């Protein structure tokens, strides 16, 4: 607060003058309320000083407006006190205030222009990262609380900090909080080996919170430790579960790092149990909920015991069970040292009198001395659920006569025999009940009540608001139990349908498809009589009966493909229901038909019955929910594995193309999405083009909505997968709107447009029809600023174009080579593969080779040759082979140590890059110094192996390399000792003309040695050599 000292000094002087005047006048003239107001103003000034004094420059910049506003309010308060208490008008303070503000601004301006001042308090990388994120927080989330001047200051400071960071901090995490956003009590209420806990207030909302400050040694926090700390914070701040304390945010780079939790209503378990008798009666229900929260934490990789293991948390949960039963901590009488000895010796607290044998057995299994022998948490959860269910079924009350404990199910007291009041009837089951209430209602002896509860529960699955309660109330285990033990077939399939609803729009279940199928197999297949009854209910039942029958059909289809339903006429009945005016049955009819589409025979039946027609009609006239599930059913039809029926597909595609052409906005959106799903099949692509879908998709690219343009581009990306489709897209005018989308679309649109260009540039004909026009500059732009996918696609487009000499020149002139090399170094695996392919094609041109080398391409290619995939290695070897044709590049390749890498690749057994690698070594072998390096790297044994067992191409390039190696006298003996003479003789006898020429050249050089001449004659070289004298070239 250095720059505000003159203003604060003047304010202090005004307050002193006010106090002196108040002392001078009679105190009786001053009311108590006025004195209280005076005290409030002074307190506000002191609080302002405490909050802002001694702060570093970054804080003073981001909080400058808040501090200045606070000082101005105190000044105005002092002015009001002079007027009220002393009846005096204070003049000229505002003029001086303006001057003070200008002075403060000037001092801050000077400070932020001096880099040494800005970085003075930011010596460590953590301090700089904390400052960076703090500034981003203010700029991105608090800009409305700043003014133009402070925003400019913060931008300037960020630029200074950025220059000193190795890498920018990246995107601001959603959970990041600067320390000044929380008012924290200095004194902690608890300390531990990892940090301290403080109470506080979240200033933005006034919510009471608990702040955990971590004990971190700044000198020990290197980059690796900080990354680990960042990851832990990402995990902690991402926690979201009804039985886990809410996390408001924090900062892993703060000094110290801190995290902000909601403040629990009760400070400890004992206080919580003592809040009411009702809580004590729900002990196991609450312990079960706590265990569910603990299980969630474990799945997120969080252990409550800190550096201990997950089994330590199981032990701690057992101690909580004992504390809940006894209402006191299990080892409260022991000091910390004694507790450690107690645990070290494997001792266990005494069994509480109120704990049953079954419960105590669970506690014992959770506290085994050997952690590996402790029961797992999933088993504990199941057991606690059992206790909780029993607890909810038998809630104890007291007899009003003798006060003995009684069950709500008893009619007479077992102690005194008094008649007990009749329990009230169970609440009526309606759709207004919450999911937890409906789940509780399924635990009943009445099959009819269970059916009704599940009927309402399965409908809640498709309600956006109710759907969230499924996760919150943790009903998965209950539903699994109901699938296996439900009191009726309807109850069991309803429970299964609830679990399987991740297949419907935007609902993600924690249960896998494989487990759903396994559970479904436990449900019996409907009998013929049951199928007939269901179809009758669908056709002639009341609205409620139709709804229940449609849900029953959907569940039965999920369980076992609805065996028997199709032959009983269920498809026709469900399609008829689609055309009715009743919303709930119509929705469930669409869901049932969508599930049917997963199976071949059912799919063909659906297409023959023209199910697509009524589903499409709903897209035009239905409610939002009806449209959503009808679109889902159509999508199931479009992507079914059974789509080899061309007649059925043609009808569906005709309908979709018709909707694309003249449907409503929403219908066009859905039709475009479904066409894209269908277009993955070659037959479907042909039908879409023949029926006119291509022209309509191109038109939607020009004038459609954002969704339509994205989906139309997706359709064109599929249609251009083969050469005929690419030519059709080009000739129908698809290229200009695709280019428009690539330049100005949003990310998803650009990705689809780039995929189209990848396909179009793959074929020479479509390239000639305009796919290359104006493509290179936007692709280079995407290499610089695009997202991961766009960079990959841009590199692929350039790789395709680089097959042409003209385009290779244009790509090089655009500056793309440097960005492609950058992708080689730091891109994703897919980006690296695309980039190396492009560079391999570009390196065909002599001019481009020096550009690749100048951009650092040789080192990057060497790294990829060592660690890339087989495909990447093949393209990398091709690129390096082309580079070895240039003398300057050869020298750099040798300096970068590529020759041993080449030889290692020959030795590794990877077949794809071998031929290119041999070609590269052959090119390198024109220089004696490089030949020496090749011999030192052990190339001879590899070459002899390829001469003997390689492919024709490998042998051709290898014999050329060996011929070059034999130029040097010192290499000849090593070739002979490695067994190189026999395969050379074989090539002289049976090779092609070039192989014969090169092998005889090598043999001629080798024969300079008497010993080698003897070997050459001994292995039978005379006959082929004599033959070459007469028939050779």
From TrEMBL:
InterPro entries attached to this UniProt entry: ARM-like (IPR011989), ARM-rpt_dom (IPR006911), ARM-type_fold (IPR016024), Armadillo (IPR000225), Kinase-like_dom_sf (IPR011009), Prot_kinase_dom (IPR000719), Ser-Thr/Tyr_kinase_cat_dom (IPR001245)
First and last residues of every ARM repeat: 569-587, 774-816, 815-857
Domain Protein kinase intervals: 183-483
One Pfam match: PK_Tyr_Ser-Thr
PROSITE patterns linked: ARM_REPEAT, PROTEIN_KINASE_DOM
GO molecular function, one term: ATP binding
SMART domains referenced in this protein's UniProt entry, alphabetically: ARM
Family: Belongs to the eutherian X-chromosome-specific Armcx family.
Protein name: Protein kinase domain-containing protein
Native species: Phytophthora sojae (strain P6497)
